Amino acid sequence: MEIKKLLEESSHYLMHTYNRFPIVLRKGRGMKVWGSDGKEYLDFVSGIAVNCLGHCHPKVVIAIQKQAQRLLHVSNYYHIEPQIKLAKILVEHSFADKVFFCNSGAEAIEAAIKLARRYFRELMGSHRFEVITALNSFHGRTMAALSATGQEKFKIGFDPLLPGFRHVEFNDIDALDKAITKDTCAILLEPIQGEGGVKIPDPDYLHDVRALCDRHGILLILDEVQTGIGRTGKLFAYEHFNITPDIMTLAKGLGGGVPIGAMLATEKVAAAFQPGTHASTFGGNPLVCSAAIATLDVLLEDGFILDQCRRMGKYFRKRLEELKKEFPGLIADIRGMGLLIGMEIIGDGAPLVKACMERGVLINCTAGNVLRFIPPLIVTEKEIDHLADILEQVFDNIA
What we know:
By secondary structure, this protein is an alpha/beta fold. It has helices spanning 3-13, 46-49, 58-70, 81-92, 105-123, 143-148, 173-179, 205-216, 267-270, 286-300, 304-326, 350-358, 381-398, and strands at residues 25-29, 32-35, 40-43, 98-102, 130-134, 165-168, 184-189, 219-223, 247-250, 261-265, 331-337, 340-345, 361-362, 364-366, 370-373. The chain has 13 helices and 15 strands. The chain has a seven-stranded mixed beta sheet with strand order 4-10-9-8-7-5-6, with helices on both faces. A four-stranded mixed beta sheet has the order 1-2-3-13.
């Protein structure tokens, strides 16, 4: 089907919830994707940090194929072998003792909020319910996740939102301390604000937040939907800050391209969930868990991918810093950790995204003026160099 007809049918049949680019991606391998017209692109978006091993990694594809021939889906009324194996891997490589599986990051956030509230109600005999989150945060599109999100632009038209959420400045420990009341049950933070413009906290911030939670007897929830599964150069971003949360949410890269979310917690906190308190029909089904197992097997094998992520992240930021020196009137800042990198532009970033796409490179703009680079963790120096050359051409045209 020709592209024009596909785009017309897309406009006709799909709700207009995305401002899509006028290309139809049909095939992907590693760092590359191809449009239906045959044009090749280098993908530095990776499905918004989902395809952590690149497109159609052979081990993930084989795991999906084998599982699809055995069993696609059964209810959580029964034990599911791949789900048990995946939970074991996550527990053995994290702070957590227990895992709940769902289908997305927003669902994982919903589960985390419910668990925190129920923990205080059922196990602590308290009516604490309030969750403090950060301004500029993004936690998802469902009603509780949206209520937790600290960006008003996502909330327009959805009032009334759920009560019980307060927002303070990110990276401001004093503001956080002052916001805690007798009703506070948890603090919910992204270790790095991704959708908010790749905002990195001060080195001691999360350590101080952990101490604050301990002092007040409240829970720390870390939203690692975007930062988890190797994105920052460690399996989980909290490892960089020498702390552990009480609850953590995962999704995006966990399935290597298939939709899966997870909420992890300590034994003490997880005990608040009992049969009937929370559930998900599709959560942790055999197919997605098999894909996630294969993804983690590759990530954890000899630590090669995580080491690659750290090295390439360092090289990536070096190349972008060179561009910043060359175009100081166009580039305000370079920041990031691992392969979650932001380039803050002086002006609107959207035209730059379009210009790069026209030159065969897919990038993303968030917060209006931050180019966000979240490539597969397998990206190489050669591919980073190619992106840097394209950016140089684009900035030259602007200058």
